[in-house]
Amino acid sequence: MEYLQYLAPLFGVLALLFAALLATDILKQDKGTPLMQQISLSIKKGANAYLKRQYKGVFIFFIVVFLILLALSFTQYLDIFTPFAFLTGGFFSALSGYIGMKIATASNARCACAAEKSLNKGLKLAFNAGGVMGFVVVGLGLCYVCGWYYFLVVIGKTAEQIGPLMLNFGIGASSMALFARVGGGIFTKAADVGADLVGKVEAGIPEDDPRNPAVIADNVGDNVGDVAGMGADLYESYVGSIVSTAALAVAAGLSTMGIVVPMILAGIGILASIIGSLFVKTKEDASSKSLLFALRKGVFVSAFIVAVLAFLLIKFTLGNLGFYIAILVGLLAGILIGLTTEYYTSDNYKPTKKLSESSKTGPATVIIKGLSLGMMSTLLPVIIIAAGVLISYYVSGGAINFSEGLYGIGLAAVGMLSTLGVTLATDAYGPIADNAGGIAQMANMGEIVRKRTDALDSLGNTTAATGKGFAIGSAALTALTLIAAYLSQIKNIVGEVNFLQYDFAVTNPTVLAGLFIGAVLPFIFAALTMDSVGKAAMSVVFEVRRQFKEIVGIMDRTAEPDYASCVDICTKSAQREMILPAVLAIVVPIITGLLIGVTGVVGMLAGSTATGFILAVMMSNSGGAWDNAKKYIESGELGGKGSEEHKAAIVGDTVGDPFKDTSGPSINILIKLVSMVSIVFVGFILAYTLMK
To answer: Where on the phi/psi map is residue 253: left (φ > 0), alpha (ψ -120 to 50), or beta?
Structure first.
């Protein structure tokens, strides 16, 4: 069955070809009126300007880190290929986000035109545009991993050398993802909060009203944060799960086939996602539940196909059907976390409806109820992940062979992410539909168009929330496999006899100290990113107020706002404010290791994974529920637009914006990046730590 390993890169190429096919079809669609095209062009220019400035800053960071890694490779603490893999990983991560953003900005006006024809056409176009992002991410990710694997095979590396070496190759993707997610999240929420506070609350004008100077910046933010940022984020998760599982295969003695099985499984997921995406369609005047089911159908079909083909893969390669059950557990865990998130954030269910009702007594009760909802929503995801880890470990033979059990957990993580092509399409669809609604409002399209885009946008809030839940769940599983891989890396360096002398028990003071350091890290990170959004949003608020005051004629539509100034403010703020959180994620694991040793680092990784997972779920679900509670009120079910309930809900949504789109999603990158940094620098830390 050795020939199966050559299928994996072919599946990666297939994903890229399918993405190109979707993109070609989208670009053939009607771009709309000259006014719609002008608005779309303004959004595209703003997004391009932001990414250009971001990539310039990140380029400098990558060169500096590349030189540091190169120096470490010359001193034998790293393999010579790691610095170059760092650059290529970061490049492909950035490229996946960039391509997704380009197609999203090219699709917004086209989506509005499609929605003018029918709800189904609007849904299909937005979903296919999101599909470009999804399949580019999985295609580039799988080609990247396979490319390096075959290169290492060709130059004569053994399986025992390749597994641990590939583990270092995820740091570039993780670093780029953090910059993209944090920077994009600060931009999008600064613009959104600024636009809402002055436009909707103070001036009393509708969302996406062209009189609001921050409206273009808000639409730009949807693309740089929720599309480019999300693409880089999940590219990193995808690559991280594959390389960590490959490393664990070597530790489990599964040799070459154990390394390539995660790659082939990812390839099967690509094929399944392509087939599943063809099932996404809906009827005219569909309810929100019907629309959600239309998207869910693609995910369910894909998961079913993976479940069938994964059985054949495991049966004819590794032979241990316990590994197959672990894959099923990962698939099921991903679906269950998505459904749990949907329950707590969709206005079709009690939690968000009750949150909406709390608006009757003002914004304070909305905030209290939303925080309570988010905290309560953490229980089921924790149970799902905990059960998934235990079941995957024991069915894979963990009770007899510890390393095989860990490999099973890795396969569960790859299984969860195997349907990423279609899952990410349902997530990236949301910002495109949101932009389409904004263009419909600004271009004064018919009421039926705005009604359809509002339905798609509202659904997008739910799919975005479930997508974040899926990303966070996969991050938790991947982070656990990375901790196991970190221990394996220590054993490879010091030898099994010396490894047994390390005390990793929680009663060891260094482990306990590391545990507390790791536990507080996500909170400090969230505080920094929340504060960054607050400071940037204040600048936008002051600018919008200034324009309303100084540019006579904005409110009666005889003068045009200066949109570019708000875009520029958000861009500069995002670039400046993203530096400290990113540096924190890289520096803390190195300093911890140098001060209290590798046992302290293990405690730090465990602490950051546990609290990071829970905090990310809480923040994402609170934010999603606040957003949909506002949408529920706007639909006329309770108060309607302009009511006191609506104003209270807007305050909740404003607090929730950085929760769900900046801090929460960024934490899942944090918990993996600290693991990646720890793994790359483990040799250096073992040599120079103060705690030998």
So the answer is: left
